[in-house]
Specification:
By secondary structure, the protein is an alpha+beta fold. Helix content is 43%, strand content 29%. The strands form two sheets. It has a three-stranded antiparallel sheet with strand order 1-2-5. A hairpin with a 6-residue loop joins strand 3 (59-62) and strand 4 (69-72).
């Protein structure tokens, strides 16, 4: 399922009057999650899980073609940890 399918499903389930209204709702939902996590807070959605920010330490990697060492700088990333309801749904 891609974003367009999510927008269609969102509109159908919520009774959004137009596809544009459903698209605005999905965009707002994504924007809220991304901006909140980027600010350092976590987003907990009951029944789904937790979105949070995690730091990946700087490390030395190897270029697979040449074998040379490459310094990879540290960076922030987003992590999703599924909740029990989501885990159970996937495993059944």
């Amino acid at each position: 399922m891609n974003k367009a399918h999510v927008i269609e499903e969102w509109g159908a389930r919520t009774g959004a009057p137009t596809r544009a209204a459903a698209e605005r709702a999905v965009e707002a939902f994504i924007d809220i999650i991304v901006k909140t996590v980027a600010s350092g807070e976590e987003v907990r959605i009951g029944g789904l899980g937790v979105f949070d920010r995690v730091y990946h330490k700087a490390r030395v990697a190897r270029d697979p073609n040449t074998g040379a060492s490459v310094n990879v700088p540290g960076k922030w990333g987003m992590r999703f940890r599924p909740g029990k309801r989501a885990k159970d749904a996937v495993n059944n």
